[in-house]
Specification:
The protein is mainly β and 80 residues long. The chain has one domain. The longest helix is centred in the N-terminal third of the chain and has 9 residues. The relative contact order is 0.27.
């Protein structure tokens, strides 16, 4: 499933929460973030900081669950 270029909620492990806290980001198990891209290592998320937007790698090891809207279904064929 492609989750790049969309807003999602990520449920993080305790270790993942500590990592984000060390980056001065909210210390919460559930994080809303914008996913720029993903790769084998994890989720590349855009995070606003005081000096502008940064990209943060959230490793798959820290991700317990993902939650995002399914979006609209695509219509195939003739619309009536």
């Amino acid at each position: 499933m492609k989750i790049g270029e969309r807003d999602i909620a990520v449920l993080l492990s305790e270790e993942g929460q500590h990592v984000l806290k060390a980056l001065n980001l909210p210390d919460s198990a559930m994080q809303w973030l914008y996913v720029q891209d993903t790769d084998d290592m994890g989720i590349w998320a855009r995070m606003p900081r005081e000096d502008g937007n940064h990209f943060v790698l959230i490793r798959w090891d820290f991700v317990l669950s993902l939650d995002f809207p399914a979006g609209e279904t695509k219509t195939i064929g003739i619309k009536g």
